[in-house]
Design a protein that fits this description.
This protein has 374 residues and is an alpha+beta fold. Helices cover 18% and strands 30% of the residues. The relative contact order is 0.11. It comes from Flavobacterium pokkalii.
């Protein structure tokens, strides 16, 4: 197995996409393989067993090529170097967190997607994606188990004067047990993403299929819709108004789902969860509409306080999670307070991850078995 040495000089105060590092001599293992979310037949980008990523872009006339990793490129840049054949190649300075990451390529100041990678909607645009193999990736792997269905629906929205889109996951037993009705989780994406995020980036259907096959959860329906977030620019969250989306969700989408799917259409069998900004939406709407949802989950999306819960008898579960590189103490302290107030509250901290989809995949895996218990 070939190795080469790289001088690693990174000044970081927290991890994010790259682990915290100091000036040191690093041996990079040359066992790079194409990312699992590459375009068909494309060799780059590649990842190795240590979590490093290597990129290669053909741009024979370019003067500068940089890969920017993370939502909006916030997790740092990797400079590529030009070879004689017109291909620019470079490797990340450090290993990346396990799981999914967005990225884009800047060529001479212009922002482009990597033609070798599949695209995923994030940062209010379609971004390239890369998957760093995780030690626990089996829980969202595609396996030979019965599979549910993810279908697109278009539902009428009088408040926005249009038809809006949602995606609905139905468990494998939904099509077989024609007389059975199912609880529903309304699951929201984060800022800059849309209703495709939980299926494409989050692997929600595979997580559910695997948990159901293992007998770890009660099957339920999941509904994912656009959270009206992209009208708000980055940094402008203070001006966000929940009322338009609350109307779409509570007054338009839920009645449509209850009329067109075999749901158990009552508060005890309805939950809401969201990641990041979707957690903010979940927090506000569940408090505004305690007669609609009985189970709440915030995934890197803030906390609840006991004072906010006006009628504890209506709340069956509060789940709050984050990555270990976010603010785990705040999450755990909040849940301790909720428990002391007599609420069924659970915290979860994803090890060695930050504000990213591996945190939220793991959070959903922990949340799902807790939902809709008798």
């Amino acid at each position: 197995m070939k190795k080469y040495s790289a001088i690693l000089i990174i000044f970081l105060t927290s991890c994010g996409a790259f682990c915290t590092a100091q000036t040191s001599q690093i041996s990079i293992v040359e066992d790079f393989k194409p990312s699992t979310v590459n375009q068909p037949g494309q060799e780059y980008p590649q990842v190795n067993s240590q979590g490093y990523a290597r990129f290669q872009i053909k741009a024979p006339d370019a003067k500068s090529v940089v890969v920017s990793l993370g939502l909006g490129g916030a997790k740092g840049g990797t400079e590529l170097f030009k070879g004689e054949n017109g291909f620019w190649t470079g490797t990340t300075a450090g290993s990346m967190d396990e799981g999914f990451h967005y990225y884009h390529v800047t060529v001479d100041g212009g922002v482009f997607n990597d033609p070798g990678a599949l695209n995923f909607y994030g940062s209010t645009r379609w971004e390239s994606g890369i998957e760093i193999p995780a030690h626990d990736q089996e829980f969202y792997a595609l396996k030979n188990v019965p599979h549910g269905h993810v279908q697109q629906i278009l539902f009428p929205s009088k408040s926005t004067n249009t038809s809006r889109r949602a995606y609905v996951y139905t468990p494998p037993s939904y099509s077989k047990e024609q007389s059975k009705r199912f609880p529903v989780l309304y699951l929201q994406h984060g800022w800059g993403e849309d209703e495709t995020a939980w299926s494409n980036q989050g692997r929600v259907n595979l997580i559910m299929d695997n948990l159901i096959a293992e007998g770890k959860i009660k099957p339920f329906i999941i509904v994912m819709t656009y959270g009206m977030t992209n009208e708000i620019k980055w940094g402008g969250m203070a001006s966000f108004k929940i009322e338009p989306f609350q109307t779409v969700l509570v007054d338009e989408l839920i009645p449509y789902v209850d009329a067109n799917f075999r749901t158990i259409a009552n508060q005890p069998n309805r939950a809401m969860a969201g990641l990041s900004m979707g957690g903010m939406e979940t927090h506000t709407i569940t408090l505004n509409k305690p007669d609609v949802f009985s189970q709440y989950a915030l995934l890197s999306g803030g906390i609840y306080t006991p004072e906010e819960i006006k009628d504890k008898s209506k709340v069956k579960l509060i789940f709050i999670s984050c990555g270990s590189r976010e603010n785990p103490d705040r999450v755990q302290t909040a849940v301790k307070g909720l428990k002391e107030a007599g609420l069924n509250a659970v915290s979860y901290v994803s090890d060695q991850t930050g504000h990213e989809f591996q945190t939220w995949r793991r959070s959903l895996k922990e949340l799902a078995p807790l939902l809709f218990k008798n």
